[in-house]
Amino acid sequence: MPTPHIRAARGEIAPIVVMPGDPRRAARIASDYLEDAVLVTDVRGILGFTGTWQGRRVTAMASGMGGPSMTIYATELAREYGVEQIVRVGTAGAMSAGVAVSDVIIATGAHTDSGMTASRIPGVHFSHLADFGLARAAVDAAATLGEDLETPVRVHAGAVFTSDHFYLERPALTAALTAHGTLAVEMEAAALYAVGAAEGVRTLAIVTVSDHLVTGESMTAEERETRFDTAVRIALSV
């Protein structure tokens, strides 16, 4: 049955969802990777397409930006459509000197400053963790994919920081998180992992580093498209 935010009929969304933030990227994943992809939802401009990838049904659907939006869509996919696996593919800003622009990060965990987590289990510092099996499969897939690329892409596995703020500059916080091994900042992984834990869905975030908070470097338009493709291929492989 359609929800307030997803118009797809029951059965039109696959058990596996690859989830970029941008609806246009969902459309691109559908057109470039999925066979026989069909638009199944477009409420509020959040596009979702279902097709097949190497014989398996997959839905490519956008999440919008930020934790609240991700939480709404991931929860409805889990509760109303029986989705079993959600893999976020998006971008992030590097915080660590060991991570460069255009690298790919498999987010094994996500710290956050979001009030959504504080209200989920009051009095507890909830740990936002990816599904271990998906994370391990992604690392293995990245290694195999790297052997097939003319220009290998560096892939990291580790924690990211999920923030509700995009423009707020907090150099002291960035330095402290980096000192504790945090690789990059983004806006959705912690929310996805919290929904995964609450709803029994396997979740993972794979992000491409589009810019660097410390050095000020950023991707070219061509690099954004190439490296995004790498993350999508890893996501589909798991």
Automatic annotation (TrEMBL):
Its EC number is 2.4.2.3. It comes from the Bacteria. PANTHER family: FI09636P-RELATED, URIDINE PHOSPHORYLASE. The keyword Transferase applies. It comes from Demequina sediminis. Signal peptide: none annotated. This is Uridine phosphorylase. It catalyses: uridine + phosphate = alpha-D-ribose 1-phosphate + uracil. Keywords: Glycosyltransferase, Transferase. The gene is deoD. Gene3D superfamilies: Nucleoside phosphorylase domain. Residues 15-232 form the Nucleoside phosphorylase domain. It is an enzyme of class 2 (transferase).
